[in-house]
């Protein structure tokens, strides 16, 4: 006879990427042990009473305690960032171990483990950021790290301290092809941005809102096309991160139509913010929404919604990049209102990612609940080699679950659990919020309180990607 169940969630409306079924969920030793009707009594019983239960979210693009050039410092470390994740229904995060130019990649990974060890409240894996692809990195460090479970890395086409030229990108993509790793690409044309920034500065146009003028859509479109071409030359899949609007989407549809394995990610800021949020006058408050690529306009938001609905996008991540607004280490470096080119890029959103998409996407009738699960959990798990342990509700999978409350929520920064002093979504009215988050069978958010035992998150070694671009969305 098998051991008793630790917990049974009864009367769940369980949603996976493929199905919605009404059943009980039996949990033993942190895993899903049984799915069915009238399961035996568990040591703990939770009545979900017809509420929707989804797999815990996987936030496959977030930045936590990533080393920055002083005085800038991220507001969230692994403690506060993963606390916030848990309260927003996310049970796995994949932030970035970033190589500094001139330093080793292995050293970045060792340092990042120290930052996470004992502090994370949800499970975590690491992407790498390759900023200096030396011979040693290409032939030894990167292949070894991939084999040790760091199977994805991000390459930047912009930012002086991170960007690679096309030849360097080809070198790293060749390693991805040989080793079966997933390359993520930040696609913006660095030279166009630098040229436009110089012109804007010369004209005295340095308020936060001019950030979006320095990075128009064509800058992203050109780099997206180039990234696709470099991937085609090497014959390797890539995933284009934080896609912001129509022209980049058109490039990805074109590539998919040619049969290329181009995956794509978008983020809530491209659904819920526009360039107007960076300011319609020269107010410095627009710094709160300075991120790259910048949010576009309402018609581009619709293009992103269409791509979520029709299968173009593979994943929806937060790109949580937590900088305080009123802080010399944040959006006011050194305590001053600086020209846009010196404002730390990125906005917070690790806790709001799932509620925003569930409320406005699922309950707003724009995507199905199954597509919601696919975008926020199942496909991130497959793209980064964590499936089927993560990303689904199936016998044998980790019991990472969210029970959803359908209720009106007035979003305010005061209710969030990150360490950032603002949310760009202040005052938005939502129709749902996670009523319970469970990590490997333990309740970490009960709908009112963060309830995690300190540092309960485990490090995950990733396997190889197991995903194909969807047949739709061309
Ligand atoms: O502005 C952004 N997206 N900041 C975070 C870093 C990145 O490029 O993803
Ligand atoms: Zn990026
Ligand atoms: Zn990012």
Topology:
Elements: E1 5-15, E2 20-28, E3 31-36, E4 42-47, E5 52-55, E6 57-59, H1 78-87, E7 90-93, E8 96-98, H2 105-116, E9 123-124, E10 127-129, H3 135-147, E11 152-156, H4 166-179, E12 182-186, H5 190-202, H6 210-214, H7 217-234, E13 238-240, H8 246-257, E14 262-266, H9 269-272, H10 298-310, E15 315-316, H11 353-362, H12 369-383, E16 401-410, E17 429-439, E18 442-445
Parallel strand pairs: 1-4, 1-5, 6-7, 7-9, 8-10, 10-11, 11-12, 12-13, 13-14, 14-15
Antiparallel strand pairs: 1-2, 2-3, 5-16, 16-17, 17-18
The structure holds N-(aminocarbonyl)-beta-alanine (URP) and zinc ion (2 copies).
Key features of this structure:
eight-stranded mixed sheet; binds zinc ion; alpha/beta; 12 helices; TIM Barrel; 18 strands; globular; binds N-(aminocarbonyl)-beta-alanine
Quick take:
29% of the residues lie in helices and 20% in strands. It is α/β, with parallel strands linked by helices.
CATH C-level category of the domain at 57-374: Alpha Beta
Q: What order do the SSEs take from the amino end to the carboxyl end, as H and E?
A: EEEEEEHEEHEEHEHEHHHEHEHHEHHEEE
**What proportion strand?**
15-25%
Q: Into which percent range does the helicity of residues fall?
A: 25-40%
**N-to-C span:** 51 Å
- What's the tally of helices? 12
In total, the number of strands is: 18
How would you explain this protein's 3D organization?
The chain has 474 residues and is an alpha/beta fold. The chain has a domain at 57-374: Alpha-Beta Barrel (TIM Barrel), CATH 3.20.20. 29% of the residues lie in helices and 20% in strands. The protein is built from 12 helices and 18 strands. It has helices spanning 78-87, 105-116, 135-147, 166-179, 190-202, 210-214, 217-234, 246-257, 269-272, 298-310, 353-362, 369-383, and strands at 5-15, 20-28, 31-36, 42-47, 52-55, 57-59, 90-93, 96-98, 123-124, 127-129, 152-156, 182-186, 238-240, 262-266, 315-316, 401-410, 429-439, 442-445. The strands form 3 sheets. Strands 1, 2, 3, 4, 5, 16, 17 and 18 form an 8-stranded mixed β-sheet that branches. Strands 8-10-11-12-13-14-15 form a 7-stranded parallel β-sheet. The protein has a 3-stranded parallel β-sheet with strand order 6-7-9. The radius of gyration is 21 Å and the shape is globular. Bound molecules: N-(aminocarbonyl)-beta-alanine (URP) and zinc ion (2 copies). One zinc ion (ZN) binds next to loops.
């Amino acid at each position: 006879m098998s051991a008793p169940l630790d917990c049974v969630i009864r009367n769940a409306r369980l949603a996976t990427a493929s199905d919605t079924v009404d059943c009980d969920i039996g949990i033993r030793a942190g895993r899903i042990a049984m799915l069915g009707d009238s399961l035996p009594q568990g040591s703990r019983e939770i009545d979900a009473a017809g509420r929707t239960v989804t797999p815990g979210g996987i936030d496959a693009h977030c930045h936590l305690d990533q080393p920055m050039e002083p005085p800038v410092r991220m507001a969230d470390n692994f403690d506060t960032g993963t606390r916030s994740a848990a309260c927003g229904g996310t049970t796995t995060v994949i932030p970035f171990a970033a190589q500094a130019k001139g330093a080793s990649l292995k050293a970045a990974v060792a340092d990042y483990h120290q930052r996470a060890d004992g502090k994370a409240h949800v499970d975590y894996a690491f992407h790498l950021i390759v900023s200096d692809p030396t011979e040693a990195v290409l032939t030894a460090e990167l292949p070894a790290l991939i084999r040790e479970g760091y199977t994805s890395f991000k390459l930047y086409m912009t930012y002086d301290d991170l960007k690679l030229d096309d030849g360097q990108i080809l070198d790293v993509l060749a390693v991805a092809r040989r080793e079966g790793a997933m390359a993520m690409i930040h696609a913006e044309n660095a030279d166009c941005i630098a040229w436009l920034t110089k012109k804007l500065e010369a004209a005295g146009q340095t308020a936060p809102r001019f950030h979006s003028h320095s990075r128009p859509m064509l800058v992203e479109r050109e780099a997206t096309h180039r990234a696709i071409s470099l991937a085609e030359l090497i014959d390797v899949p890539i995933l284009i991160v934080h896609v912001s609007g129509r022209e980049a989407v058109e490039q990805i549809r074109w590539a998919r139509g040619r049969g290329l394995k181009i995956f794509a990610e978008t983020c809530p800021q491209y659904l819920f913010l526009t360039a107007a949020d960076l300011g319609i006058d020269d107010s410095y408050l627009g710094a709160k929404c300075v991120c790259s690529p910048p949010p576009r306009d309402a018609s581009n938001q619709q293009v992103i919604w269409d791509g979520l609905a029709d299968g173009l996008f593979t994943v929806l991540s937060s790109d949580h990049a937590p900088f305080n607004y009123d802080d010399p280490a944040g959006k006011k470096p050194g305590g001053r209102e600086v020209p846009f080119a010196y404002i730390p890029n990125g906005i917070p959103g690790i806790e709001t990612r799932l509620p925003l998409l569930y409320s406005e996407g699922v309950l707003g009738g724009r995507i199905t609940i199954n597509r919601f699960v696919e975008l926020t959990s199942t496909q991130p798990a497959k793209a980064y080699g964590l499936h089927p342990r993560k990303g689904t509700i199936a016998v044998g999978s980790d019991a990472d679950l969210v029970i959803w409350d359908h209720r009106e929520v007035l979003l305010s920064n005061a209710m969030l659990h990150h360490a950032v002093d603002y949310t760009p979504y202040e005052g938005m009215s939502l129709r749902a919020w996670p009523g319970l988050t469970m990590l490997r069978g333990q309740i970490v958010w009960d709908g009112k309180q963060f309830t995690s035992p300190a540092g309960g998150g485990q490090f995950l070694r990733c396997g190889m990607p197991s995903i194909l671009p969807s047949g739709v969305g061309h």
